[in-house]
Automatic annotation (TrEMBL):
Residues 394-408 have a biased composition (Basic and acidic residues). This is CRISPR-associated helicase Cas3. PROSITE patterns: HD_CAS3. Pfam families: Cas3-like_C_2, Cas3_C, Cas3_HD.
Amino acid sequence: MEDERSVVYVMRSMGLAVEVITRVSRLWGKSAARNGGRTHLLLGHLLDTAAVAGVMWDQYVSVAFRRRLDEVSGGRGRAWFMWVCGIHDCGKACPAFQSMDAAEAALVLGAGLSWGRLPAGRGKRWRHDVAGAVLLLPRLVEEWGDGEAAGWVWPLVAGHHGTFPSAAALDPPRGAQGQGAAWEEVQRAVVDVFTRAVGFDVLADVRPVGSLRKAEQLALSGLIVMADWIASDSSHFVGLSDAGMVSFAFARRRAETAWEQLRLRGGWRNFPLPEDPLEPLTGRLGVQPRASQRELVERAWSMPAPGLLVAEAPMGEGKTKAALAAAEILAARFGLDGVFVAMPTQATSDPMYEQVLQWVRSFDPDLESQVALLHGRRRFNAWWRTIWHGRPRPDGDGHCEHGSRPGAEDTGDDDFGAIDEDADYGMVSDEPSTNRASGLGADGPSYWFLGDKRGLLTAFAVGTVDHLLHAATRTRHVMLRFAGLTGKVVVVDEVHAADVYMRQFLIEALRWLGQAGVPVVLLSATLPPAQRQRFVDAYLSGVLGTADVHQPVPEPAGYPCVTVAYGADGQAVAETSREAVRSWRKSGPVRLAWLPDTDPAGTPVAAAVRKAVADGGVALVVVNQVARAQAIYRDLQDGGFDGVLRLLHARLCAAHRADRTAECLRLMGPQAGVDRPERMVVIATQLAEQSFDVDADVLITDLAPTDLLLQRIGRLHRHSGTRRPAAHYVPQVLVTGVEPGRDGTPRFLRVSKGIYGEWALLRAAALVMEAAGPLEGRTGVPMASGWGIPADVPGLVARAYGDAGICPASWDESGAWEQWQAKEWDREKRAEEFLLCRRREWAFPTLEGLHYAGSRAVSEEQLDAVVRDGDPSVEVIIVRRASGGYRGIDGTWLGVQGEVDDDEVTDRLLGGTVRLPPGLTDAARAELGPLPGWNGRPWLRFCLALVLEEDGTRWLGADRVSYHEVLGLVIERQAR
């Protein structure tokens, strides 16, 4: 049983002088003014944090990470983890901190500690996190007798407020750190008393016997911050101003109660290995394994150490289910506790979230409340609302498993990341989130994880790939994001979708994940070989801890294929499938033909659509510009198109886009059956390019780079057993958005060149020309040869991005390539500014100086701008002015000032959210703001309202904008 005796007893048993005991007993850690009206002593907070760490060790930290901490601490991992978490705030035992609150400072001065004139001004103030490193470092060096161990431990203390300073920063202003015997005795006593209280006799006993790798240090730092934030919650850790009340046993009971009330928990917690190697596929996911799925699962079983798996297989092959099965195996084998599935977009994250929910329930139904959906529009996901907001289930049975949760909107993405004293250093101040419904039982979701920067800390998470990329940026509290990845298996779907800018962050993330021993599964149908090689090299550079690793990946035996990379005995290993893996879908011809057209109005496209479905069928039209999609839709509608006609693009408001996407999946998805229309046309932009599980009979598409063009073709004849008109038994693609120019050189839509660059389009045109004939020849008539899909996919992608010339000499491919290469190089260099680690520092053994010039990004929107290149854009909520007030886009009355009365109205209003094109960003920021009535609503108070006048339009900058129920946001540039 833990010692119930207080820290006062501990100090007396250590033989400390009475005056030292008195002074230590006066040092405050949380002021009454910022801690619910009750002072909390410094030793109390240190012990609270250590106690929280103990509960985290027992119920949260993965087996793999516990094993590593046991290794470096000589088998004392739990106690060592509690010590390193609790010691974080020892730097508060200095004048710079103790003088910050006048009332608290008076008691400290009265105990006999004093200070002179201290530096004034926020910019000159001595931070207690750095003060802690200054206080601790010389003692660690002296008493551990090991500068190497002290060298990687002190940054953990110095960095607990989100940034890791350099050693040069450990230079306190005169008097700020404390001078004289009184301060030296008190500072030594704080460290020694805390160390004794958590179970070590003396500081020398804490000395680690080994070192964590830098990525493991980053993960540990994140866990320290997590423990600190939980222990800083005054609603669960009531302040103690009497040292006689402070004991580690009491702190432990407080921590256990807080953990239970916050409903915090880990994930699998030692889930056993399945007895049948294919059980994760056949039993849990209910699939009859295909050869490519078997290959990935078998590789997960045979990999001797955590590593990288790259699965390449055709669209619709079942890669994601195979990846989930592989994740279960890897987690069970290597002691991981959860999974993060990264998707390219918000739209693709939602269906994956529902799939992961179903999968997680097969382990334990209660685990569904530990699955987070990480993107800004999750509020509109029906299952998210059911589990996290107590709304009726999507099946309409009215069941609410966890009870009602009034005021649920207050548990959203508010900035809970900063804690009390951070306000004194220029950060937004807000206490960590508390559980708004603590009486609902231990099986409900933990709202604590909804706080800013915490989403990845949930056991299971699905979200946009941005969250993975954020964990590779040199931003404040990056350690929290990275800690959320460590201890999980990371799955990245559609990995080819990352452009060259985003790819720099993905490569950086792979380095850190490799060094942390995190298994990663990358999925793609159209991955260029050079990208596969870079991903492998990045992961292995992390495993080996060096910046430059090149381990040639053998040429795959066929397609589908699986590449495996891991470290063994200090050596890098990269392997691919040794035998050809049979694709589930038999390869067949896809006939291609040209449809020359570079007019944004797309009149020839509309005519081709009418012809293609004249005798029935389902056509998918994918174009590269919203205005072009709208124009084609108008043409078909005005011409009296007889059939189901739908428009899908990114300028639809959130509610309309979600409804239309769901309808397309219902009518064209794998379960469509009798619901599939006799005649249907969907006109879409790049939203339909990936993770859009629909089946079209014919595809008409603007030209795009080869890999993206193949992704669009992946929506064609996708599902077996789909009934089709006889004219569509053979899949056909009409390629438009291009027409012959001077000397036969293709001319492209201007918007296509702006998005993709001319070189990639020229290469794609050359490959299409091989299958469809010359652009100047007969158009609209497919050649008999075409492409063999999926067999030709890897070869086409490899040629498109290879070094060999494939374009006719008259096209001047070299000039286009030079322009493309220069632009790509420039984008790579811009990304380097925000990468977590400079190249020359990759092999450094500690976190010292990691934030040498950290990004100032603090909000999710700013972080998105860091990891995604291009012009900035903003979201707005469309509101219509009405007589005497405002209405939402669906007609909901809002009140004279736009007042919103309840959650349901908030939901309907947020359904009118739409992202403006970048060209309107400056005007929106200058002219728009929240409605006055939104000030008290957490979800609305920072939102921009795009107020349309009663005629349905308004000027925004030089553009006239309106919103049409079908067309979406319509933008017309006119002279005022």
